[in-house]
Amino acid sequence: MKLGAFSKDYKLAEIKTKCKEAKCTLNDAVTAAISVSLKEYFLSRGDEKTSQILMGIAYNVRSKPKNSTEFYFGNEVSMMPFSVPLFSNFAQGLSYFHRTLSTMKNSGSASGMFALSKLILLLPYSVAQQVIYFLCGRISVVVTNVFGPTQPL
Questions:
Q1: Which has the closest alpha carbon to 61: 100, 114, 98, 25?
Q2: Parallel, antiparallel or unpaired: strands 77-85 and 141-143
């Protein structure tokens, strides 16, 4: 069974200001924070061996509209599996994720995964289910900006 975890509220404007000062993206900072937090969690449980996890990161694959008439509310998102090393030091993690996520974002991999997911949907349901589990079954963490529960669980 998969479980979820939620954090206290943070002021997004303050985090974005810190990211601009550090010349990184919000995704870089969030990924570094998750990496360091998980490293601390594993160490607190006596696990010194786990050095990375597989994370699912949602990427928007829509083209940027050239003008307001090209804008639409379609949802074209690709879930990218990403091997995340666990860092003890936030600054080291931030530097690593800034380089790595920028390269990944500009690589075309997200568009490839989006196309693959569309092809998988053409398969018979039972086959598609096995392919999806094979591709995503080892993902430990999924990062999204979709709101969580509004009431305590």
A1: 114
A2: unpaired
